[in-house]
Amino acid sequence: MDISNRKHLRFLGLPLNSLACKCVALVVIALVLRAVLLPRLYELGGLFEQSKFLVAPNVSLLSDSESLMEKSKFLEVPQIIWGLNNQKIAFARACLTARMLKRKLLMPSLSASLFYKEVDLLQPISFDKVFQFGSFNSRCSEFVQLGHYSEISNQSDVVELQKGLGRRWTVEKDFEQLVQFSKQPYDQYEIVKVVGKNPFLWHDHWPAKDYARVFECLVFVEQISKEADKVVSKIRDVGREARQQMGLSQPVPYVAVHMRIEKDWMIHCKKLEQRLNISEICSSKEEIMDRVRNIIGLKIPMVIYLAVADSLLEDNSILNGWNEGLLPCEKKKLGVVEIYKKHPYLIQSAIDYLVCLRSDIFVGNSFSTFSSLVVLDRTQKMIETGDANMCGVDTHWPSFAYNLAGESNGPRAWVTNLSDSSLQSISYGSNHISCSLTSRL
Question: How far apart are CA 437 and CA 419, in angstroms?
């Protein structure tokens, strides 16, 4: 076909070189491109939208208060050892360390047994077998969080933090070390692993109210709470029986006495008295009985529950010598020995802790960590009730220290001073206690 005839070629009935033909051709090309490319663009767009959630799934779900845990960085601590309340203090100290480093605390291993000197004999127990993991994170969501090891993305992304040892390692040096590990390059690691002694022995950098905040988040698992319910019910049964026999109209309350007269305690307290040059730490059975009976305002009859470590007790006469109207009982008399025996030491201690915590009146030793944390817990409950007066048996949750003389040779009224700058008095005991309003937050 020669050039002269090309002008006669037509497309869709239109001359090829006409303006209308060119417009139609452009429309066809646009439709083809749309059919081919648009699905791919939609696919890419979908991936882009998904990437908003795939890049950092935790960030979009975190509130401002949880920003300290962004990028899921963690603190790992050694197994926590010793008695229940030393372990609670160690755990709180580890939490506060993690908070300072802006990390989650990896759920630690506790110790079910008390053989703290023979590390190879320690019986480990998971934190969530003693305390409620979910409840802790819910209650402490604005303060500190626990993490599972399954949350770690890179097990090898670890830097070790060696806690200082010896007399030259001061509180100031320890704090400087923590500040250093909160900055580059250490803050880039996914895991900071503490290498050193049990956290209970770490230096203390936080006020009592911060520890109290952590303790508020600790809730025993339901099994332990139910076991404590059984023991409390048996104690109440003693009171109900006395009420019926005496024809009383009011329920008979109970006093929980943390009676520290076991052989290990007597050795410890005597050494402590010598070292601190204090004569108000050790108490004999007779002194404890005398102080309890002299509590001002104590109503008779009253059930006396004696919380004592039976396996370490050498005196089998703790139920003898109490005044008429004071009804002493302990595990054997209550018939609850089997409840305790089926559990390891740590759980036994947790059951007794709850029995003491729920008592109408608590009497303990101000140099005992167990007693100190029971009183701290009761002090927090007392503050929640809004009592104007924190002294005496007529208040809610009253507590006393039998190793310190109070009014009329009774035990000294005791609440925790939550304005203390450290947990020193609770961790190691003190003879400077009161029930004044200065103990409020």
Answer: 11
